[in-house]
Amino acid sequence: MVSQRQRSPGRPTLEEVAAAAGVGRGTVSRVVNGSPQVSPAAKEAVERAIADLGYVPNRAARALVTQRTDSVALVVSESEDRVFGQPFFAGIIRGISSSLAETPLQLWLAMAQSSAERVRLNLHLTRQHVDGVLLLSLHDDDPLPALLADRDLPVVLGGRTASMLGTPEAAPVSFVDVDNVGGARLATTHLVAANRRRIATIAGPQDMGAGVARLAGYRDAMAAESRTVDPRLIAYGDFTEDSGIVAMRHLLAARPDIDAVFAANDPMALGALRVLRDSGLRVPEDVAVVGFDDSVIASQTQPTLTSVHQPIEEMGRAMVRLLYDKIRGIQPDAPYIILGTHLVERDSG
Amino acid sequence: MVSQRQRSPGRPTLEEVAAAAGVGRGTVSRVVNGSPQVSPAAKEAVERAIADLGYVPNRAARALVTQRTDSVALVVSESEDRVFGQPFFAGIIRGISSSLAETPLQLWLAMAQSSAERVRLNLHLTRQHVDGVLLLSLHDDDPLPALLADRDLPVVLGGRTASMLGTPEAAPVSFVDVDNVGGARLATTHLVAANRRRIATIAGPQDMGAGVARLAGYRDAMAAESRTVDPRLIAYGDFTEDSGIVAMRHLLAARPDIDAVFAANDPMALGALRVLRDSGLRVPEDVAVVGFDDSVIASQTQPTLTSVHQPIEEMGRAMVRLLYDKIRGIQPDAPYIILGTHLVERDSG
DNA sequence: AGCTTTCATGGGAGCGCTCCCGCAGTGTTT
DNA sequence: AAACACTGCGGGAGCGCTCCCATGAAAGCT
Known about the structure:
Two copies of one chain form a homodimer. By secondary structure, the first copy, chain A, is an alpha/beta fold. Helix content of chain A is 41%, strand content 16%. Chain A binds a DNA duplex through residues 3-5, 7, 13-15, 18, 23-27, 29-30, 33, 37-39, 42, 57-58, 60-67, 128.
């Protein structure tokens, strides 16, 4: 075993580059960091030396002195298994990753599943380890955003909690979200316009912003059409397909005359489709179904699923934009970004 | 703006812990790193000081001196969009992440989509930035593994290239893979046993190990049953659903009498199902279909899809195990791990 | 010409940590 | 009693970098 103190010979240091270029350490540092205070001649010499030696700055050394790490953490604070694999996360990560590629920032992925892991994680989410944090999939009672904000680490949430729905400008942390209320309204209004009379909804969990907002949108739209909502037209799920199945059975049992269902996400809509088929009801002839997500599966169901589209990848990109501005101390135009949705009509209603 | 040189007051250093505990820097370091050369009294004093002050070691400073970073990169070297969102990746990441949680290692996520990004990435995959690299989704001509191995950075591949299929012990880098040949054999033999006479296959891309191996398994099984394989029974796709559609159409055009299809992954099987339905053929009565992946969609298709199961999460965990051993300089039992598969029978055949 | 201002430059100090050397104190052996 | 080994400990050196200050040269001013 080679001694730890030995530097691997292949990796040149700043000092060696300086020697090769015939300049001082300071000048090389200035060139590397793009300072304008360098003469063209010196700059050229340094650049050639860097290329010749294959110099790559040592991040640890730089981080030690600048107190910046040039990395951000993506924290998926969710205990359930299903988190990944959901096309939602896939899309967000794609957006985040492609956006980060345009910055000097590196992405750290942290999944905190058990609560022990979350404690450990919390300890490491400090300025000396990351420059900022992207938080995904929050339940309303998650203490993490507050903790991080206290430490004043730049934080951006993907989505928001129910408490931030009413007055987004008062939200304690920045966030990027889609207009869930508007999207749900779109879906419901669409069903009304299609002459559906008894429109039910399978709502999401009421401890998550998206669940609350999509139900609010449904209520809004129904109220706008002066439809009173029989409580038996509302069932709740937890965004999984199984919960959609259970909810749909409840709805059919309570109100067998339902002729439309708006499900708060695609997996639950899938569950609904399954139950309807098993009950011998035709979609869309007997019951129309509209989902929310416009995920890949929406075009693969039978019949294909009408669904509210949300710009997921753009959400990821917006999160990075907001966070990067914060990290650089740039005051963003707004502390939050809300993206629009639109309805993609397919065969189910 | 506060000067960069200022230490944020909240974060105590080793030295401050030492002062608080009334010991020297060395002793604190020994306690933090679990050295046995510390008296119980000193150890206790240091531990209390750490707890009191909320001390967390500075990774940059540690990395600077140890030349280790305690982080590994997960490189998804794939230019296509679809990469994420595939349940395959989701599962692997879950396995990797849960396994890493038991080590001191942190996960860096790097996706290199454009080739410019790949150059930049390659520069940063050095010992001074990461302790090891996990590589996913390789095409046979990917130069990255060789480059990294040259630099002698510990590397573990997820999957393997076609050239490593024959003699895994001769593979230039460690890898974790499933027994694709065996899985494909399982699927094919199952169709034979179900009395299918004209069994076609939709093979994957032949520049990827999985594509080659699954086709080989099909051929093996057919040969074992002394069935000659009409070349018209083989079509090729690129693992996407669309390519499965095209391939299935080709097969039906060339051999309308096909009564079974083995697709090299689930999305292509999905495409096949779609074409068969559109052609008025019943599944499984007229044509049986078997996929490979046993992904979530397999149980959601109509009819549900019989598919070869691979232990994806376990694959991720095995990759981490192998890499962590390498990083610590532990000679692993074998430089590679091949995991088994089994068939999950559903309605499609 | 003599003065000030500007600019490019070299190199010291120090970021927070680990490694290692040497010292003191205790115990063991001859 | 002397000689030696071992254990626990303190603190110097140094990892590779950025920041900043001092310096000298060039340029601009009266």
